[in-house]
Design a protein that fits this description.
It is built from ten helices and nine strands. 32% of the residues lie in helices and 10% in strands. It is an alpha/beta fold. The strands form three sheets. A four-stranded antiparallel beta sheet has the order 2-4-6-5, with no helix packed on it. The chain has a three-stranded parallel beta sheet with strand order 7-8-9. It has helices at residues 9-12, 22-28, 33-48, 100-113, 137-146, 177-187, 189-193, 215-218, 235-243, 248-252; strands at residues 53-54, 68-69, 72-73, 87-90, 117-120, 127-130, 162-163, 203-206, 221-224. Strand 8, helix 8 and strand 9 form a beta-alpha-beta unit. The structure holds protoporphyrin IX containing FE (2 copies) and iron/sulfur cluster.
């Protein structure tokens, strides 16, 4: 932490306790003037109980209408280094698989062009880069796209689709969520980058009704895998268990929430 970091007695409270602390993380990057001013501004908000971010202000990159979210503070003279603090959403890979080289590449770009602060991953699904200035947006966009990355959605567009890890790691997956997510992302590139709807639209893909990606709560179109067949019973194995003393009716059938099963029932 730099000596220039302003005193933040109220924020310091949020460093206490065993859980992760965003204040701790901010202080790790406080050698940067942008993060110093961000800490100062946030402390001020805690003192005054007033948010000091203005709402609105459109920023973006040429050719896209989405992917960058404009943030301006209403105390630009007191905290000049974070008077502009725009968010860049980077479209995440399906299933959130990265090589360490890929992560280093992103972090190197962001170290040079932004605040160094990231959010992996946002509720939208994107890999979120937090805090940069308007003049850096085109250079960031150029560097990201040259290396095969792309921006995600924002505003009234088709938002970056996201999925659970699915069959890459999970035994419950009833379909290939990553493939569906990737496919839909490609299909709707135009709608994703160029807001043309009256409101945003979100799609999320869950491999099974556990819905680990919280698609029901977080999307307009939630795609959830279900089992498509009759329930399969290995009658020979059940008999074997019963012979060995398992109370199949009591331990298994009576505990099934469908209440449809009985030992010996054939339909
Ligand atoms: C004018 C100022 C700001 C406004 C109006 C604002 C509003 C919002 C809204 C509406 C969202 C979307 C909620 C969601 O999708 O989960 C969001 C996301 C987020 N904002 Fe802000 N915000 C502002 C400034 C900031 C600042 C200064 C930071 C950090 C220093 C920040 C950090 C985040 C993070 C981490 C997310 C989650 C992104 C995601 O889940 O995809 N915001 N903000
Ligand atoms: C306890 C209360 C709230 C919770 C837990 C909550 C949670 C969330 C979450 C998780 C999202 C992200 C959805 C996604 O993209 O995956 C979201 C988005 C959003 N919330 Fe809330 N929210 C709350 C209250 C509010 C209120 C009171 C407002 C407005 C007055 C609001 C405005 C928004 C907006 C505008 C977005 C969409 C931002 C965007 O992606 O463009 N939320 N909220
Ligand atoms: S939603 Fe289902 S398939 Fe996807 S990770 Fe969760 S348990 Fe696995």
């Amino acid at each position: 932490m730099s000596e220039k970091t302003p005193p933040t007695p109220l924020l310091d409270e949020l460093e206490k306790g065993p859980w992760p602390s965003f204040v701790k993380e901010l202080k790790k990057e406080a050698h940067r003037p942008m993060v110093q001013d961000l800490l100062g501004l946030l402390e001020r908000s805690y003192e005054e109980r007033v948010g000091h971010w203005k709402h609105g202000g459109l920023v973006g990159v040429m050719g896209y209408g989405g992917g960058v979210i404009g943030r301006y503070s209403d105390l630009p003279t007191e905290f000049p280094a974070c008077s502009e603090f725009h968010t860049v959403r980077v479209n995440q890979p399906a299933g959130l698989f990265y090589t360490s080289d890929a992560l280093r590449e992103l972090c190197d770009i962001w170290d040079r062009t932004g605040s160094g602060l990231t959010n992996m991953h946002g509720s939208t699904g994107d890999l979120v880069l937090l805090g940069t200035t308007t003049d850096k947006l085109e250079p960031i966009f150029a560097e990201l796209t040259a290396k095969g990355w792309d921006l995600g959605g924002s505003g009234s567009d088709m938002r970056t689709p996201s999925c659970c890890v699915g069959m890459a790691r999970c035994e419950w997956s009833c379909y290939d969520t990553m493939n569906a997510c990737y496919d839909i992302t490609q299909e709707f590139q135009d709608e994703l980058h160029r807001p043309m709807f009256p409101y945003k639209y979100k799609m999320k893909f869950a491999g099974c009704p556990n819905d680990c990606v919280a698609s029901i709560a977080r999307s307009d179109c939630s795609v959830i895998g279900t089992w498509k067949d009759d329930i399969q019973v290995d009658a020979k194995a059940v008999t074997e268990y019963a012979k060995n003393g398992v109370d199949v009716q009591g331990e298994i059938c009576d505990r099934c929430p469908t209440a449809l099963h009985e030992v010996g029932r054939q339909d």
